[in-house]
Amino acid sequence: MTVQLAPGVHWVGVIDWNLRDFHGYLTEAGSTYNAYLILDEKITLIDTVKKELVPEMLARVAEIVDLEKIDYIVSNHVEMDHSGGLPETMARVKPEKVFCSPQGKAGLSRHYKEDWPFVEVKTGDELSLGRRTLTFLETPMLHWPDSMMTYLQEEELLFSSDAFGAHLASSERFDDRLPDHPEDYAHQLKKYYANILMPYGPLVTQLFDKIAKIGLSFKIIAPDHGLIYRRDPAWVLSLYQKWAAAVPEAKALVIYDTMWHSTEMLATALMEGLMDAGVEAQLHHLRSTHISDIITEVLDAGLLLIGSPTLNNNLFPTVSQFLTYLKGLRPRNKAAAAFGSFGWSGEAVKLINQELEAMKLKLAHEGLKVKYIPDPEELAAARKLGEQLAKENLGK
Ligand code: FEO
């Protein structure tokens, strides 16, 4: 199967139907690694796929053109879901040149220890393929320091690398059918943004400024994961603008783990209070909801209530893991508070508070601690606290 995005521009990627874990992110719907082939006077391959899947990609390319006829390879991103197939591709294709950012050259050299014919490109550099021209756009940290995008001027087609992608295996290559199921795809896009790009929201905003300054317009946006946008590229751009702005919604999450259900009783009482206040609220037990799914909800939440029992003077391990993951994703514009049951030493609330402060989140309360099992009065107070925190922090 070959698919054309524009005359002589082919999708030559691979669909990874069985992928369920992407460095810790639950990819319940699989993924794709999108690579693209441009037929011109200089035949050009944009990106590759994972190492173990590259035979499928090369077979797809070979349906269109002899591999030896490829002149150029553009490597937009070093991460191995896109470059893992480069060594085998290089050996089979032997291209004249490999175009990448300066950081891309450094990263690819460290990964593969090969003296490939690199050509470093920077933002605004152009490359004529004959009838058509590429423009390069460096996009550091979207998703790694080396990341860049490649724009095919004549088709107004942006090969956007990781940005605007989603982990979704599908027989659909394009967004044409999105009007039938936009929520499903928007959810996968949001999950991807939250787990991959949330720390870099300010850089996403800068990217939009850069695009406006250069004056690029898009008829097609072709990311390296998920669907290609040709029906409505503006749709995904508007979602990214919203997420990058990190404007919180009137939405609260109660995220917790529990040993003998006491912290869970507090979680449930806090949840009742949030609902009393009329805000959107969700309860997530850390051994029931995958952390990558919780992070999807964190993205636009305005209030996080995080609960842990004290275990051996410490946090419960799942709570510790969640806080480590959350801190790395640099959430912005949220209030947060801690809660938990304890037996004798009761360090958990203090330890959660330290993490929340390290994340520079607004500490909405000093923390709710209850010894052993909460009694009815303490549960009523927890419920009141949930309502109060929602009113104080979510404008309800
Ligand atoms: Fe799809 Fe950052 O790799």
Sum up the structure in keywords.
alpha/beta, seven-stranded mixed β-sheet, six-stranded parallel β-sheet, binds MU-OXO-diiron, Metallo-beta-lactamase, Chain A, 2 domains, Rossmann fold, 396 residues, 35% helix
Structure in words:
- By secondary structure, this protein is of the alpha/beta class.
- It has two domains: 3-245, Ribonuclease Z/Hydroxyacylglutathione hydrolase-like (Metallo-beta-lactamase, Chain A); 252-394, 3-Layer(aba) Sandwich (Rossmann fold), CATH 3.40.50.
- It is built from twelve helices and 24 strands.
- The protein has a seven-stranded mixed sheet.
- Helix 8 packs across helix 12 and helix 10 packs parallel to helix 11.
- The radius of gyration is 24 Å and the shape is elongated.
- The N and C termini lie far apart (53 Å).
- The site of MU-OXO-diiron has 9 residues, from helix 2.
In a nutshell, what does this entry contain?
The protein is an alpha/beta fold and 396 residues long.
Mean of the pLDDT scores?
97
Per DSSP, the total helix count is 12
Number of strands: 24
CATH H-level superfamily title of the largest domain: Ribonuclease Z/Hydroxyacylglutathione hydrolase-like
Helix content: 25-40%
Give the N-to-C terminal Cα separation.
53 Å
How do the strands of the widest beta sheet line up side by side?
1-2-7-8-9-10-11
In terms of quaternary structure, the protein is single chain
List the ions, cofactors and other small molecules found in this model: MU-OXO-diiron
Rg calc: 24 Å
Low-confidence stretches: none
Quick one: overall form?
elongated
Number of domains: 2
Task: Give the percentage of residues in beta strands.
Answer: 15-25%
In the CATH hierarchy, what is the architecture of the largest domain at level 2? 4-Layer Sandwich
What structural class is derived from the secondary structure elements?
Answer: alpha/beta
